Prior knowledge:
With 301 residues, the protein is mostly beta strands.
Amino acid sequence: MKDILLWFLGLLxxxxxxxxxxxxxxxxxxxxxxxxxxxxxSCVASRPxxxxxxxxxxxxxxxxxxxxxxxxxxxxxxxxxxxxxxxxFFTAPRQCEEKLNLVLYKKPDSVSISVVNHTxxxxxxxxxxxxxxxxxxxxxxxxxxxxxxxxxEVYNHSFSELSPATPVQVSSTLLIVPTRGEDGAxxxxxxxxxxxxxxxxxxxxxxxxxxxxxxxxxxDFSSPGDEILEVNNxxxxxxxxxxxxxxxxxxxxxxxxxxxxxxxxxxxxxxxGPGAYTCTASNILGKKSKEFIIKHxxxxx
Length: 301
């Protein structure tokens, strides 16, 4: 009785092992195809087969007794295609199947970049959103969207949580708080389909146009403190009131010694009497003032 049980258990183990072996191989095992391109894949049986074929929406075929069968499509345009190779065998396991790992892709029609709800120049220190929109890309779970400022990557947005097979529109936002040093900075975004080793090399990529940002900020002096100048009577004096601002600042001077209005940032004069000269640099965002004190040198100095 014990021998019979061991023999039965051995047959059961053999059956399980055999049942786990499909005896079908697909070559190549993973295929990446551009929308509209041709595709050809082989399915090969490793033991005698009664029937071998492909179950698919398009390009299916059935071949009796042959150990290999091809799935061929001249122009693949079906987004829901999931080809399956199946075999019907003479011995156990009698039937099995293998699904083709197929990736049908399409590059984006366009990639665009803009500032959300804003058209005028940006203001230093305020918060803005940049928007990157990608039109008609598939499959989106392979998409990597990279943000660049100049040549530096500043953000990478993936869409691996999404899984539609058909082309979709997606977007990404980048939050920025511009500084005056970023006036003229160039932003762009780049959409890349990372399709793996079986995909095209280099990976399909579409870039947006460059978005150059203009940053406005109030005037500021490189040397903001008041200045004291000691000159001889009749000697030329240079009062430098140059400030940095965007839009470029306008200048006004005030002093009891000035007989006319001056609007230039640098005042070069002679025979100025001792006293205070105040310069104000201003633009739409603010103004800054600076005072110059002129003193005559004492005789003999």
